[in-house]
Design a protein that fits this description.
InterPro entries: Glyco_hydro_28, PbH1, Pectin_lyas_fold, Pectin_lyase_fold/virulence. One of its GO terms (biological process) is cell wall organization. The protein is mostly beta strands. Helix content is about 10%, strand content about 45%. It has one domain: Single-stranded right-handed beta-helix, Pectin lyase-like (Pectate Lyase C-like, 3 Solenoid). It has a 31-stranded mixed β-sheet that branches. Strand 1, helix 2 and strand 2 form a beta-alpha-beta unit.
């Protein structure tokens, strides 16, 4: 064991030394040298000019947005580049308040890159407050499209660290078709009233890591869509928001399987939900398997533990037909804290495709409200249990049980 640890530390130090050396050799491209000014004028052209020159560099390069407050209408930063590239934002970049000025796509779109880094300690301010009232998802099945703060597409071996996403108009981050991308010490901030401002949405990507980050927003802190594989969410503090969710799944044709979701050592504070898996009823076919929620701390959280295969927001669907998404190999272990509602555990699976391989271990929740005892609601599932369950869960399948 000691020899293995020493070898591991040796290679870790070697990698750190390599990263430091690469950073030291990086060529810098400051956007102010391309005409960007912190005076309210649009820096889109200056940023793109700096990016193109940096992208053509045969040695590692860094595009720098220095201290100050800059305005950016829209940016699409595209590769492939000839060497590793970093966008280092030290100041604040503000989006236009009017979403119609962002003509197509997202506000900041980064795509087709290998070894990309976003860093610098700066803030991307989506200025979404005036847009949230335009969100009509509660009225129509097809929501009006507002721009996300970030779209990361087709990135490999990349990292986003030490930056803040503030007040996005819609999702803060959309991750699509990425492999081996990490979000570390990433801060997301928006009020609870900001509709559909998911923190990090992950779809059709493999090897996504969200670690040591703080997310407070008006929807899911982390939402995991179809095709997500080997996703790790560790050391995340969530709140306000709707919790950490797999799904919703099954709404669209040809959704890809979800495989390998690991949520560990996370804290959720005053969120609408804790950790959950959700699929639409009357859904398209799909599957979600190998999902594990371990060492979760909840503080005043409504709906702490959820599998909901009758997810139907704003009554835009029917419960006549069951979900056709198969859920299997799910575990909830060492989940502790306080529930804001008496219904602490909801495991409602599809009657046509009952959940399989659900494991419950060491659940210890308290409810301090006045609406009665804590309960669980279970249907079409037969979990296996380990350790303590407070409240008692699924004592008899299909009935709510009181503590």
């Amino acid at each position: 064991m000691g020899r293995t640890l020493n070898i591991t530390l040796f290679f870790a130090c070697l990698l750190l030394a390599f990263i430091i050396e690469v950073q030291a050799q990086s060529t810098s491209f400051d956007v102010t040298k391309y005409g960007a000014k912190a005076d309210g004028s649009d820096i889109s052209e200056a940023l793109l000019s700096a990016w193109k020159e940096a992208c053509n560099s045969t040695t590692p390069s860094t595009v720098v947005v220095p201290q100050g407050t800059f305005s950016l209408i829209q940016a699409t930063l595209t590769g492939p580049c000839k060497a590793p590239i970093e966008l280092r934002v030290q100041g604040t970049i503000k989006a236009p308040e009017d979403p119609s000025l962002i003509k197509e796509g997202e506000w900041v779109n980064v795509q087709y890159l290998d070894q990309f880094t976003l860093s610098g300690g700066g803030t991307f301010d989506g200025q979404g407050a005036k847009s949230w009232g335009q969100n009509d998802c509660a009225k129509t099945k097809v929501c009006s499209k507002l721009p996300n703060n970030f779209s990361f597409g087709f990135l490999n071996n990349s990292i986003v660290r030490d930056v803040t996403s503030l007040n996005s108009k819609l999702f803060h981050v959309n991750v699509l078709e990425c492999n081996n991308i990490t979000f570390s010490h990433f801060t997301i901030t928006a009020p609870e009233t900001s509709l559909n401002t998911d923190g990090i949405h992950i779809g059709r990507s493999n090897g996504v890591n969200v670690t040591d980050s703080t997310i407070g927003t008006g929807d899911d802190c982390v939402s995991i869509g179809d095709g997500a594989k080997q996703v790790s969410v560790t050391g995340v503090t969530c709140g306000p928001g709707h919790g950490i969710s797999v799904g919703s799944l099954g709404r669209f044709e040809n959704e890809q399987p979800v495989v390998g979701i690991f949520v560990r050592n996370c804290t959720l504070i005053s969120t609408q939900n804790g950790v959950r898996v959700k699929t639409w009823p009357a859904s398209k076919t799909g599957s979600a398997t190998d999902m594990h929620f371990d060492d979760i701390i909840l503080q005043n959280v409504s709906n702490p533990i959820v599998i909901d295969q009758e997810y139907c927001p704003w009554n835009q669907c029917t419960l006549d037909s069951p979900s056709r998404v198969k859920i299997s190999k799910v575990s909830f272990n060492n989940v502790k804290g306080s529930s804001a509602t008496p219904l602490a555990v909801k495991l409602v699976c599809s009657k046509s495709l009952p959940c399989e391989g659900v494991q419950i271990g060491d659940i210890d929740l308290v409810y301090t409200g006045t609406q009665g005892n804590m309960t669980s609601d279970c249907a079409n599932v037969e979990p296996t249990f380990m350790g303590k369950q407070n409240p008692p869960i699924c004592v008899k399948n299909g009935t709510a049980q009181s503590s």
